[in-house]
Amino acid sequence: MYRSINAEFWTDPKIDRLSPLARYFFLYCITNPHSHMSGIYPVRFVVMQEESGLSSPQFKTVFQELLTQQILHYDEQGKILWVTNMLSYQAHGQRAQKGVAYHLKRLHHSSLI
């Protein structure tokens, strides 16, 4: 799987306001093996914490920071993460849009959709 990271990431005002650890974790959110070009994908807290290598207190702090900044949203019931604006950077063209539509149907009516 390939994910591109726009070079403007580092100059985006929303990203600039984040702590360095939150920036790192956000990069994890857009590049991890569970991610989807739509930005909406199922992943559990324990998996994100383990794969990112953050301690439990670090994870809780940065996750809350990203939620507060509305860069991420999380459906706790469905265990689904939404990385806002990921779709606009990752899914281009009609084929990608069809893939996203199919993916969203498989997420069992998450409140994020």
Q: Could you explain how this protein is built, in words?
A:
It is built from six helices and three strands, in the order H-H-E-H-H-E-E-H-H. The chain has a three-stranded antiparallel β-sheet. The protein is globular, with a radius of gyration of 14 Å. A hairpin with a 4-residue loop joins strand 2 and strand 3. The protein has helices at 13-16, 20-31, 45-52, 56-68, 86-90, 94-105, and strands at residues 40-42, 72-75, 80-83. With 113 residues, the protein is mainly alpha-helical. The two termini are 23 Å apart. Helix 2 packs across helix 4 (56-68). The mean pLDDT is 85.
Molecular shape: globular
Task: Supply the helix-strand structural class.
Answer: mainly alpha
How confident is the prediction overall: mean pLDDT?
Answer: 85
Helix content: 40-55%
> Order of strands across the biggest sheet?
1-3-2
Q: How do the SSEs run, as a string of H and E? A: HHEHHEEHH
Radius of gyration: 14 Å
Approximate strand percentage: 5-15%
Please count the beta strands (DSSP E, at least 2 residues each): 3
Q: Largest sheet at a glance?
A: 3 strands, antiparallel
